[in-house]
Amino acid sequence: MSVDGVTSSSGNSGASMSNVAMQTLDKNAFLKLLVTQLRHQDPMNPMEDKEFISQLAQFSSLEQMQGLNTGFEGLSKSSIASQAFALIGRTIDYADPAYDAPLTGRVDKVTFEYGSPILNIGTEKVLLANVVTVY
After folding, report:
1. Domain range holding 33?
2. What is the pTM of this model?
């Protein structure tokens, strides 16, 4: 029994919860497909060992890539947090949409909202992405 591969293309390169759900769906779909294929194979023409081993290798590769992706996401979050913490006590210029020119201030502390670091400069809250210059 021959099964054609399914591919997907997306213009969104950012990670999101829907991407994580989609990865889980792909993993489960692969397992369901493999089990269904084994259940409904022709007893007179069973699946060849090479095909079965190839599919198991693909599944193993998928599992390893998902593990690497999870590790890289954690590393990225840790790196961003370290960058934010390194700015405590430093003077920065930051962009503010309400003003034409960058504003300047000293970072008092770093807080996190929804997993993103927020630099606190007095009463102002500044996103790390809005930092223009560090002194």
Report:
1. 17-82
2. 0.57
